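Recall that a protein's primary structure is simply its ordered list of amino acids. Everything else, from secondary elements to tertiary packing, is in principle encoded there. The following example makes that idea concrete.
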Amino acid sequence: MRPISGASVDARGRSGKGVLALISGVLLLAVTACGGSGGSDAGPGDGKGENAGAAGTKQSQAVVSIVPKDGAKAVDTSGALKVSAGQGKLTEVEVKDTKGTAITGTITGSGASWTPATHLAAGTRYTVHAVARDSEGRTAAEDSSFTTLTPKNTFVGDFTPEDGSKVGVGMPFSIRFTRGITHPEDIDKAISIKTEPAVEVAGHWFGNDRLDFRPEKYWKSGTKVTVKLNLDGVEGRDGVYGKQDKTVSFTVGRNQVSVVDAKKLTMKVTQDGRVVKTIRVTTGKSGYATWNGQMVMSEKLTVTRMNGDTVGYGGEYDIKDVPHAIRLTTSGTFIHGNYWGGDAFGNYNASHGCVGLSDVKGGYDSGAPAAWLFNHSMVGDVVVVKNSADATVAPDNGLNGWNMSWAKWTA
């Protein structure tokens, strides 16, 4: 490589020493300017700018604490997650699962702590990002992750009506749990119901394994109901956790209520408040009277077998082909077609507790009263029985919570 000859002697005859002296002078000036001599001519380099910069980069005094610790496993789904700030206030807390779903929560104590608004899902990894600000406005952040426990024992809730159903105005949302629940308050918090149009809906426990929801009065026709079952990770009883995370929606159809008068032996079918048909019936005979009260249609069977053995009336009847049967109670009360009743309809009570309507064997006649009712009814329609010799049906015998006052339902 050739030396740069111009560095020794340029065209004007100046030596390289002059150039070196000039360069050295520039370097010296630069060093002097950066150092700051503290003299009267120092100007901006008098040290004030340096001190201000150090103060601006001073570390925040706020301390963010996250429990459980980073990397923790088998964390409980409730009560374990806590975020707090010392010497500062929390300004942001973000908790997400691996799908990006956020867990809502509330900053309390004037920024001292954050707690989740709900339980966590089981067997799930969560990440936590938290930020706090000290009194000088400087921020500190902390990140962590942990995994919740995988339960050995679980439960689910079997529910009715099914997702996407269209139901009658009396249909409650009923859940039957596969394990007895000893922490009902946690189940209550994990279930939310939204309606359009809005109406107050309340839940009522029957024993420790069934929870029904309904409004004070029958649903308004056209109401859309959405139920969120956020049961995954809920500890329903000690050591037993829910494993459901499901949304269920159903729509309320036209208003149909049928009133059976056990003395007059008639049934008046009303739709949207107007009587559309009057049908002669037979109800429970002496000693087998039909329940009084409001009963919700819970199941429709085109044909079914009815055997007295199943309801404690052993040997009294066994009819293998009962047509157009609609269930009203869990204990076995139906409103159904009857082809063997002769002239009982409208004349005398002859059944073992059911409401019977005239029909034909095989149920092929669509013009028969039982066939008409079957074809014009849906699950969730209401049948009201009055003037019977029996008591009022129990609210938990079928989907019949309407026989309980609103005050008792919400107590």
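The chain has a mean pLDDT of 89. The chain is about 10% helix and 40% strand.
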